[in-house]
Amino acid sequence: MREPFPWLRRSVDATTRLRGLLYPVAALLLLITAWEAVKLLVPANGVSIGDQRILPRTTDAALPHAWSVLTVLGEADGKSTVGATLVRTGGFTLGLALLALTLGTIVGVALAVLMQRFGWVERGLLPYVIVSQTIPLIALAPLVAGWGGKVTIAGQPWRPWMSIVVIAAYLVFFPVAIGMLRGLQSPSKAAVELLHSCAAGWWGTLLHLRLPAAVPHLLPALRLGAAAAVIGAVVAEISTGTAGGIGRQIIVFSQQSTGNAARLYAAVIAAALLGVVLTALVSLAEIVLRRYSRPGRS
């Protein structure tokens, strides 16, 4: 049956998309307004009760104006500008985070398939997968860098950026493995028995039933993994002392921000935007897999 008012549906979809764009903009404006309100109303030395400070300092060295963070992008930084430096270092970190997301996804999906296939593997391995996330990255990074220094791949020595990828992938594989496992186990018993009645083995059931059913659970896990990949890459750059990325650039700007912390805040915001960019790349996968992106769709 033909839809009577297709223009109405298109209008509703356009309104929904517009709202989806306006909400983040409104949240950003609200955050900037609150930032400037704190800057205006709170004393320069903050507010303390006894020896306990309850409101932060609002000097330019601690809390610069919002527009200062934007204008600092045009300032000179060596042979380039601050903005160009952040783009260069951010691109380096984004590449490592993307590699970590890919590696972590491969490991997480493989573990999920293995745990779904063998119940005894799930019972024995899943607790260790969960406990693995309690290890702080600051303690893990020197170990990975030290072990990597003794590894040679195809005659090539271990590179410092490889340690960053491994450390960031360590954060990625957990949400992917848990989400994928939940998705693989989501098909009903009746659906599994139906494929078995059609002489489908475990491999056929995996391809035609479990993997499509796991997509709605995998996509949110990939979004979490994308954010975790950026966090892991930034922390690993700082912990291993690897130069070239935005993690080390944050340390450099923090040492330069003696009277004005605008550069430091600009670097932190740039690092946060990397997570947005990587999450947007994950959304492209959702467009490709939109046929399976909602539970209940065949």
TrEMBL record:
The keyword Zinc-finger does not apply. Belongs to the binding-protein-dependent transport system permease family. It is found in: Cell membrane. This is ABC transporter permease subunit. It is a multi-pass membrane protein. The chain crosses the membrane at residues 21-38, 92-113, 125-148, 160-178, 264-289. Keywords: Cell membrane, Membrane, Transmembrane, Transmembrane helix, Transport. Residues 90-286 form the ABC transmembrane type-1 domain. Its main location: membrane. It comes from Nocardia acididurans. SUPFAM superfamilies: MetI-like. Pfam families: BPD_transp_1. The keyword Membrane applies.
